[in-house]
């Protein structure tokens, strides 16, 4: 399901406009209710400080959530490469005909997983997912006769490795769907709006220093942009490159089929 925070640039523009308007409204409309006595000024300073501190904490926690999800996607990409590489090695334990077909399917599956990291459009992702499911079924059906007909540790090892290959794709997809909740975005934006309104409310010469008072909305908007960009797996600037899968692809292409694959994969 597409969300507005799938487009970090839109988040930046909308945030900058909304927060700038909030500061302007705080200065032009709400400041007329201000009192000039010293106690009111002190109370306003306390409220502004508390609100800005809360905003900073919320932005920090949300940024941490985005980084955690980003790191998890990196970890799962590495796990996928290891699972495919390990099963490619174990395919040599199969009968010759099944081994060759399994290796060919694993190479095809590897190409599909690399393509997964480069697609941006939802329609393309759906088409690739259908192809990936067919390849997964072909991989499982190819080893199934041997696993059923044989007893011992070897068939169990092959089945376990293939199961890990198939599961790793599901874990990766789940991590890409695991995004910062919309409730967290709503809370963070609401606090940012109130914080900017308070800044405008407390300004004495807002109209004379409009450029200066745009700095705070700009900084907060940049923070929102960075959070949305890191949290977006497909449409941001900071994307996850499948380095481990690409490295495995290079290794498989450069080695003859009868040469053992590096254990690092």
Topology:
Layout: H1 8-30, H2 38-90, H3 96-116, H4 122-149, H5 153-177, H6 182-202, H7 210-213, H8 215-231, H9 243-254
Helix pairs in contact: 1-6, 1-8, 2-3, 2-5, 2-6, 2-8, 2-9, 3-4, 3-9, 4-5
Q: What can you see in these coordinates?
A:
By secondary structure, this protein is mainly alpha-helical. Helices cover 77% and strands 0% of the residues. The chain has helices at 8-30, 38-90, 96-116, 122-149, 153-177, 182-202, 210-213, 215-231, 243-254. The longest helix has 53 residues, at 38-90.
The succession of helices and strands, N to C, reads HHHHHHHHH
Low-confidence stretches: none
pLDDT averaged residue by residue: 85
Spatial shape: elongated
Please outline the major beta sheet: none
Secondary structure: helix percent = over 70%
Structural class computed from helices and strand pairing: mainly alpha
Tally the helices: 9
Report how far apart the termini are. Answer: 34 Å
Strand content: under 5%
Computed Rg: 27 Å
Count of individual beta strands: 0
Search tags:
265 residues, mainly alpha, 9 helices, 0% strand
Summarize this structure briefly.
With 265 residues, the chain is an all-alpha fold. The protein is built from nine helices and no strands.
């Amino acid at each position: 399901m597409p969300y507005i925070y799938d487009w970090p640039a839109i988040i930046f523009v909308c945030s900058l406009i909304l927060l700038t308007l909030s500061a302007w409204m705080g200065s032009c409309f709400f400041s007329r209710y201000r009192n000039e006595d010293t106690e009111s000024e002190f109370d306003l300073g306390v409220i502004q400080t508390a609100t800005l501190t809360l905003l900073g904490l919320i932005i920090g926690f949300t940024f941490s959530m985005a980084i955690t999800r980003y790191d998890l996607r990196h970890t799962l990409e590495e796990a996928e490469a290891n699972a495919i590489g390990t099963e490619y090695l174990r395919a040599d334990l199969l009968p010759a005909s099944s081994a060759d077909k399994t290796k060919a399917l694993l190479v095809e599956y590897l190409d599909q997983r690399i393509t997964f990291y480069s697609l941006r459009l939802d329609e393309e992702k759906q088409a690739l997912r259908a192809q990936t499911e067919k390849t997964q079924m072909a991989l499982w059906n190819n080893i199934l006769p041997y696993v059923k007909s044989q007893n011992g540790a070897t068939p169990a090892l092959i089945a376990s490795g293939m199961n890990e290959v198939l599961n790793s794709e599901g874990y990766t997809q789940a991590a890409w769907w695991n995004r910062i909740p919309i409730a967290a975005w709503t809370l963070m934006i609401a606090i940012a709006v109130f914080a900017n309104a308070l800044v405008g409310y407390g300004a004495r010469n807002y109209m004379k220093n409009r450029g200066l008072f745009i700095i705070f909305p700009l900084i907060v908007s940049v923070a929102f942009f960075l959070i949305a960009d890191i949290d977006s797996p497909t449409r941001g600037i900071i994307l996850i490159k499948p380095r481990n899968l690409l490295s495995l692809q290079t290794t498989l292409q450069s080695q003859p089929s009868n040469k053992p694959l590096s254990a690092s994969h």
